[in-house]
Amino acid sequence: MAANAPAKLGYRTTALEALRGADLRGKVAVVTGEHRKRPWRVAGRGAATGGNSGIGLETCRALAHAGADVILCSRSVEAGERAAAELQGLEQGKLTVKQLDLSDLMGTNHFGHFYLTQLLLPKMNVQGTPGRIIAVASIAHAMVKGLPLEDLNCQTRTYYPWLSYAHSKLANVLFVTELARQLEKEGSAVKAFSVHPGVINTNLHRHKRVSSFCGMLFGPLMKTVPQGAATTIYAATAPELEQDSGAYLALCKVGRASKAGRDSELAKAFWRKSEELLEAALARAGLSS
């Protein structure tokens, strides 16, 4: 452990402290973002972010600092380049900006990353070396007891932003639950984790009404951006997690997902539904094989 690392990781740990001296030279990290406006719908565009701001950028900073070659994904290449410029001279690894707008095809909080994972996994598996897939979920996943599998896109029910956000975060947890099961069954060296970053003062709260609400509700409990990225970095680098694939992490340790988040049958059903909707979306976009 590095000399400047805290004796115990916890609520106020920063991303750089969560590294604990990890050497990531020779590793490649792809950092994407989430959908901020309508976080569930498969169709339609919204304000998608990536590694160019908030905890995404802080994650890039920490991984590059440890020597990883980081691919910073951003909907806007210009915004990504500006963000990369902020990190120049601070990183040991190579930093590359790539344009990525998952919301062009499907809602970014789940379906875009579901598709991206399917594209990347064959390359990760063929290497035969340990790798990790991390989904940034939220404690908000515990606000709902299940998923409306027959109407995930609010085609016949009313769209409520916070309810849809909770559904999307439960989707992140279930995605990791089933992905980890499949990877273990295949004997893959790739592990998967979902993480709760905490309530963070980021651009996500840039709207005055949302920021005011979060400030009143959480106040001093809100984390800084470096603290908010800590659990993601822990998930990416902690050697003690090697036997915990599929775990839900919070406060830089293994936590406990909600009952719905631990429902393996729901995870399987949601995976099948995701494949069905993905196939339909790809066909509409002219991308099906």
UniProtKB/TrEMBL annotation:
Cited InterPro entries: NAD(P)-bd_dom_sf, SDR_fam
Keywords (A to Z) from UniProt: Oxidoreductase
An example molecular function term from Gene Ontology annotations: oxidoreductase activity
Keyword Oxidoreductase in record: yes
Oxidoreductase found in the keyword field: yes
Domain of life: Eukaryota
The name this protein goes by in its record: Short-chain dehydrogenase TIC chloroplastic-like
